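Q: My labmate handed me this sequence with no annotations at all. I'd like to see what the chain might look like in three dimensions before we decide whether it's worth expressing. Could you predict it?
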Amino acid sequence: MKHLDELIDELGLQQQITMDDIPAIDLYMDQVIQLFDQKFNDTKRNKDEKLLTKTMINNYAKDKLFIPIKNKKYSKEHLILISLIFQLKGGLSINDIKTTLVGLNDGIQSGNLDLEKFYTSYLNLAMKNVTSFHEEVKSHWQDVIEEMEDTTEEDNLYLKNVLLIASLINISNHYRRVAEKLVDEISTK
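A: Here is what I predict for the chain of 189 residues:
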């Protein structure tokens, strides 16, 4: 179990762009990328992984995933939206992200949305998710051990790991499908 705890800790799941991380001044694109690189550097799967690039940001802007930028600078609202996109892109398509965020963008532009309050709620839920995730993975590992208790294979740890991988991906697919159904509900309204 210790190995699994260490593995989860290495993921840096608690890393988020917080309101304190977002400066009061608008940033140029290179500064936005630097902020994300500094905050999420330890979460990279390997050192060559690019977390956020100019091309990504330009594509998000072109696809209208966030409100238009002004004078090549990104405001607090842009950074919040880019942070949400950064998190959502792991499980949703760009079109689904656009559908999901259109109401936020409209609310920002009309002045009818307190984006900082919304984002703070997201961050609170994200922290709760980290805690419950850690416990859930431990529970799934226990389930794997129970399923494999009668196995006499030499490579028992390998088989347990494969079974845990398959189980976690199965659960991930369930969560993604629910999220997609919720996106579909948003798009029909």
